[in-house]
Here is the input.
Amino acid sequence: MSTKIVTARVDIPNSHTLSVYLEQGGYQSLRKALLEMTPEAVQEEVTVSGMLGRGGAGFETGRKWSMLKQDLVRYLVVNGDESEPSTFKDHLLVENDPHQLVEGTLITAYAIGASRAFIYLRGEFALGLERVQSAINEAYAYGAIGRNIFGSGFSVDVVLQPGAGAYICGEETALIESLEGKRGFPRIKPPYFPAVIGLYGAPTIVNNVETMSNVPWIVKNGGRAFAAMGKGRSTGTRLFALSGDVMRPGNYELEMTSKTFRELIYDPDFGGGLKEGRSVKAVIPGGVSAPWIGPDNLDLPLGQDEVAQAGSMLGSGSIIVLDDHSCAVRAAWRITKFFNRESCGQCTPCREGSGWIEKIMHRIELGSGTESDLDLVLDACDNIAPGLTWPPQQTTICVLGPSIPSSVVSAIKMFRDEFMVHIKEEGCPFVH
Amino acid sequence: MSTDESQNLVTLSIDGREIKAKGGELLIEAAEKSGVFIPRFCYHNRLPQVGVCRMCLVEVKGPRGFSLQPSCYLPVSEGMEVITQSEKVKKAQDGVLEFLLINHPLDCPTCDKGGECPLQDQTLTYGPGESRFAEEKRHWEKPIAISELVFLDRERCIQCDRCTRFADVVAGDALIEFIGRGDHTEVNVFPDRPFSSYFSGNTVQICPVGALTAAPYRFKARPWDLSQVESSCMACSMGCRIMVQSSQNGLTRYLGLDSDSVNHGWLCDKGRFGFEAINSADRVTSPMIRKGDSFVETSWASALSLIGSKIVDAKASGDPSRIGIMLGSRLTNEDIYAWVKLAKGVIGTDSVDSQLGDGLRGEVIAALPRATVNEAVSAKAVLAFTGDIKEEIPVLFLRLREAIRNGRTKLVTVGTRSSSLDKLSEVSARVTPDQARLLAMEVTKDSSKFPEISAVLSKQGVGADGEGLVVLLGRENLAWDQSIVEAFALELSRSLPKAKFLITLRGSNFSGAVDLGGVPRLLPGRSSLETATPVLRQKWANLPAQGGRGAKEMFNAALRGELDLLFLVGSDPRQDYLDSELANSALDNVGFVVSVDTYLSRSSSSADLVLPAAAFAEKAGTTTNLEGRVFTVNQKVTSPGLCRPDWTIASEIALELEEDLGFGSAEDILDEIAEVSPLHWGLSWHRLTKSAALDGVVVPITATALSIRPRAMLDQISTPGIASVWNQGLPSSKTSYFDDGTIEEPGSASQPPAQASVASVEPIWPVAPVQPLGTMRLGYSRKLYGQGEHLMNSPHLSKLIVEAKCRISSKTAKELGAEMGDSLRVADKAGGESLFELEIDDSVGDGIVELIRGSFSNPGFSPVRSDEAVNYVKVERA
Here is the structure.
């Protein structure tokens, strides 16, 4: 077994309580940071760790922090609006180790000089909200949040805000709008880079729950220890949310690049393989906005650059396995339907394009498609993500738009024959 | 070009051509100015940009090569490289248009927008030829009424965020919002909260498709059947620039034009939809003479001859002031001048008034240093002692709101009542008349007297002499006599000589009336009877021997039997005079009342003779707005029946007296005004219709007024087909259409007149009566949709006329034992009573009752008495 960082405590009974967390050495990292380190030193450790953001975009956390405009008022926002189909890693962390999240948040607030931190959690996380709120309350009572924390002179407040059920609010600028009490419309970058103009117009760092949860370990063990795990840009561990046609779907924390897709899927300790007699048809490696990879790529190591080189992305670390009994058309249609439902409605190409593509895909799946529909749907995709390249270009404000074509284009490219069967036989050949 | 401007310029290339633009200017604007039009839907030059429609994508070179960027969101910068015409841009534009059209109903043949629709036009110019969409379109219930005035068809909506942004950011009425997600995103109102904004019509005008339509225009005309002329709205004193459109000689629509100095393209709904009243079937269309209790039609010839003999009879007594003239807000400058010349120059009476107790003395207005709207919205600080601007001059409210929101100025309000300005102001001070007096004298001298106000003024850098301060002066509380406001202003101007005043009375062209002698004791050019210019003396047959009476004095004279003949020219005192009891009994006691009117108003229906007048858009002329800006008003339709412009009627009456006023057209009159009035020297049709078509000219004309500023860009979506607006104007016999429009400076002989000095007018503080026991102080104000023939004759606006209401604070309510919604009985000084529904509002001071002027349950109820400086009423639960 490799080292576990963020999930080290999740299986301990009552792991969400302060007493268990303290028994396990909790809040020692915060003490160390506040009492023994300067904010710059904490930032330096995180920079040395090379940790990439765990939300999906994979931007280096230390570099992100260093880009924060040094205005008097600065904010930290923790993005826990995990709502993408198949992504459920943060779900585990907020429910089973909320104090780790709070501690990471506090250390980060100290490192970047934030006067207030906001944890924005998906509204549907009923238990997670309850547990994070009680963790915050316990931490206040313990003296880890509030004024003059542990006598260090550093003060910060932490505010929990539930989302109202929109996937788009996981996009950092939409999240900020939502946090300000507005409709979750992503902002245009430039000029609205949160590190420059963020929450309430103040410079803001937005970090993912898993990213925050890694911070106490990095402070405790040093950035070098973190960087020693993994390979290349892929340092530390990642929490992979494995789902789809595997025997043992679930969250698995692995040292980055230490395993391949094949190992994750087939290892009896992890995915446990597929149903008897079935084979992998495709893998969606980094959440449903990622292009698919085929069985020929199963030996790719689970690393940031490795997956990028194969034309996709490790994204949020959620991996869906499609076996040979599942329908590629149906899968792509369902994913498009999700994006259509969740498009914020702001930009024309995404709002209208997602609906149109969804309708065509549905029609093909139901058996009313034509061969020319395939070119049409690809061209509609091209009008959202010009060139259909990866990483995509976009005609929209945020990346939800160019996420729509990923599955559709992958499905058509990889399984054009299957589309033709739907069209010729006027229906789906698979049993649902 | 000044050094500042040239330093701020950047060079960029658009399609390989180098252009210069102001640094920070948006790319879409810079491109348009250089002749490259980038298509757009959501971009509007008066709204914050959102960059959502994605129609304006162009290729811009960045660190990673060229990429598609929204040109409406990108400020230009030095060395920027832009491509607007490439395969990639074309494909993006095609894509956006195709996406916009897939769910758009394409019901263009039955859509009001068809023919002037930016979606149609840009699809033709930029879009793909055919749709590839074979699915079922999205469906919504076809149009839903979101207010009495506006219908919303969500199927046509392209979610450009223009209406929602306008409502929220500009109007401050965030009553429409996006609901839902994905392609089921819709604009809608909140449950049980209609889009009841005074500015809702603007959303219809800026809508780039037919999603928002206005009830008064729906299915009335097709755009290609409309003809149009530029004009100025005369619904209030703002003078918003409009395009008047008609079809088949009926007015169909007004569109707001973007004048940088005035309305920024916005209109209020009362102004925008008031045209319905002009089309009303209830217009007076023939001269009518009273026979007993009813009218019979008569000819112009016999009507005029009767008037002639009545004037001769009245003058026979030897006292021309037995003849009075009241001028209404319908009148153009030319109408006013003609009637003033008839009254003062021919008949010899100075009893001419254009205000009905709800204004301010002409001498006071003339003496106060005048501020323009642009000066007010960029002043260091604004002090408002005025009626509720949102209710009275709505578009000025928008200008102020914008300036305050953007931090260009700060506002202090002073008064007795709560108003819409309170929300925008730093300090809202409630004052009594005594405190107002103290404030006027001490505000910058002793900061301890009004610490909060003084703090704002000094923080804003207002000088001890008032430098940088603009005062909005109007009738803050109609229950206070105007003399209090006048004394306040004069006193303030004496202690702060550099402060400027913007007179915020709401009546259209009140300013023109003051400038042209439409008030007692003043002559055209604001000269007094004694200081008439030689030119005026030469042009006018005679001048009044002595100063005449204002409205109140005329009514009092009538009660004494000293008024033989009264002309009501667009004036309806029975409806509008504050002390309606005085007005009613006085009018009953005038020997002969001639009403020149467009409808049978309360006053004209009891007149002895009614003459049919041409309404707005049925005559040409000029009007002067509250800041002294003169614009053209143009004719679009012909009057019904035998209606005539008011100035013609004055000329005809003069002829009955064997005098020739000496003009045959509105243009002649303006020429004469420019000749006799030092204030108007240099004014001409030419200047108003060519060089200054959109912004008008502030009188007196100064070099600054003449400097030609770069024009605001017109939003082509909200003013379709009006690119050539500058060239519109009054057809003129004296100016050539081929004229190059150069302006000659006014000659040395025509220097602007010296400003009358506040030192020459004494502030007279009236003695406030002691509050009678058992009474409450009265706050009295108007709503936008109050009373008036114009509203009542507009089928759609008449639905919005507000009920009279009364508001008191919760503490006062408790003392009365009354609750929200209770019926209250309010009794005036003479014991006249009326019932009101109670609204509890803690922005009202304790012990004050605020009444909204409206139709009272008892028409004889007259809470304001013209002989009281401050009015008190009795209030009890009904």
In short: Chain B touches chain A through 38 residues (CB under 8 Å). Confidence is low (pLDDT under 50) at residues 723-750 of chain B. Residues 300-316 of chain B form the longest helix (17 residues). Chain B has 28 helices and 36 strands.
